[in-house]
TrEMBL record:
The keyword NAD applies. InterPro entries: 6-PGluconate_DH-like_C_sf (IPR008927), ACT_dom (IPR002912), NAD(P)-bd_dom_sf (IPR036291), PDH_C (IPR046825), PDH_N (IPR046826), Preph/Arog_dehydrog (IPR050812), Prephen_DH (IPR003099). This is Prephenate dehydrogenase. Its EC number is 1.3.1.12. The keyword Repeat does not apply. Gene3D superfamilies: 6-phosphogluconate dehydrogenase C-terminal like domain (1.10.3660.10), NAD(P)-binding Rossmann-like Domain (3.40.50.720). Coiled coil: none annotated. Residues 296-366 form the ACT domain. It comes from Paraliobacillus quinghaiensis.
Length: 366
């Protein structure tokens, strides 16, 4: 008999999982969301087979339930699950960016019929909502699962099978380990990116041309500050104690750097920069990590009518789809003025080859 999957929270992540499951399985998909427009959109675009407004009723129908609401709302849904009596086995997973508070909440589910496996697909976008959802969002991404000791291999296999179509790489991590690592490489950098943007905004009062200078590299290094503020506020507070520790570490490190300047310690400053460069250069550029990457090609074009169209047509002839296009006014530090963002590294390399073959000067993003 066809199994039923309930996706609760049909935003960017829940919607993308629903599209992917629909494309790759014959499961019956039910969608639940507190936003009625999202439900209408999901039904109209056949992202799910059925939509519901009663979470408890839908849970009783489901064999598998994916909780994909914001972290604090997912905890509220788990609290509701504690009081629902189901009469068939139910496998529940979530997609929250923070794992410890979720697993703690889920430990209060006492029904023998219910198995909870924490999950976190480490792929996303700065966009939010169902309209930004896409089935291939998780391709080549790391998908973390946090099964506890009581989880049977049968249940784990069932979830892994459901996620097979995402073409992500499953990695099993303990919730605390997960929260610490993702804080270091994703949550905390987000806070710092936002603080850099605030600093630029403050200095703009003195130097009105700051936005012009910020168009190139500064915009790149602060890209994650453009993500969904509501989601990040929720993540920071759900992961408060680790973020607090990291902030304290960071403040101490900045104080040490300030001392190096005050004492004219050029050797230590050089070593600090050199060690950072070595570590960064050793990171794998071919894998998707916690922060979504873009595959950019910078192209030098001349200010002539049709110049942009020529570049776009060249790539279109080879079926290469351009995710974003931007004309940069700054030339400092980069070869070209046209930035093309591609969907994959394969497209990036192919576009670069095509452009070079056609006489363009290019540079790839490192
Ligand atoms: N966006 C990312 O980059 C990313 C990556 C990995 C994991 N996540 C996690 O995915 C989850 C969802 O994030 P998103 O980016 O899809 O957000 P989103 O804002 O795109 O979608 C959230 C959806 O949840 C719905 N919702 C809110 N409260 C609800 C409730 N009580 N019951 C049911 N639905 C509810 C909203 O209406 C919306 O449709 C979060 O827990 C987040 O931590 C996000």
């Amino acid at each position: 008999m066809t199994k039923t999957v309930l996706v609760a929270g049909l935003g960017l992540i829940g919607g993308s999982l629903a599209i992917n499951i629909k494309e790759n399985t014959d499961y019956h998909l039910i969608g639940f969301d507190v936003n009625s427009q999202t439900l209408d959109y999901s039904l109209k675009n056949r992202i799910v087979d059925e939509v519901v407004t009663d979470f408890k009723k839908a849970v009783k129908q489901a064999d598998i339930c994916i909780l994909a609401a914001p972290v604090s709302k997912t905890i509220e849904l788990i609290d509701q699950l504690k009081h629902i009596v189901v009469d068939k086995p139910l496998l529940i997973t979530d997609v929250s960016s923070v794992k410890k508070p979720i697993i703690e909440a889920a430990s209060g589910i006492t029904s023998d019929m219910i198995t909870f496996i924490g999950g976190h697909p480490m792929a996303g976008s700065h966009k939010k909502g169902i309209e930004a959802a896409k089935g291939h969002l998780f391709e080549n991404a790391i998908y973390i699962l946090s099964p506890d000791d009581s989880c049977s291999s049968k249940n784990l296999r069932e979830l892994e099978n459901l996620l097979k179509g995402t073409r992500s790489t499953i990695l099993k991590l303990d919730p605390t380990e997960h929260d610490e690592m993702t804080s270091v490489i994703s949550h905390f950098p987000h806070l710092i990116a936002s603080s850099l943007v605030h600093q630029a905004k403050k200095w703009q009062k003195k130097h009105v041309n700051i936005p012009t200078l910020a168009a190139g590299g500064f915009r790149d290094i602060t890209r994650i500050a453009s993500s969904n503020p509501a989601m990040w506020q929720d993540i920071f507070f759900q992961n408060k104690s680790i973020i607090q520790d990291l902030l304290e570490d960071w403040v101490n490190e900045m104080t040490d750097l300030k001392k190096l300047l005050e004492t004219d310690d050029k050797i230590s400053m050089y070593q600090y920069l050199e060690q950072a460069r070595e570590y960064r250069d050793g990171l794998d550029t071919k894998k998707k990590g916690a922060i979504p990457s873009f595959y950019d090609v910078y192209v030098d074009i001349f200010d002539q009518t049709g110049a942009l169209l020529k570049v776009v047509s060249l790539l279109a002839q080879k079926d290469i789809s351009i995710k974003n296009i931007e004309i940069l006014e700054m030339r400092e530090g980069i070869t070209g003025v046209l930035r093309l963002s591609l969907l994959s590294q394969k497209d990036q390399i192919e576009s670069n080859r095509l452009l070079i073959e056609n006489g363009y000067e290019t540079m790839l993003q490192e």
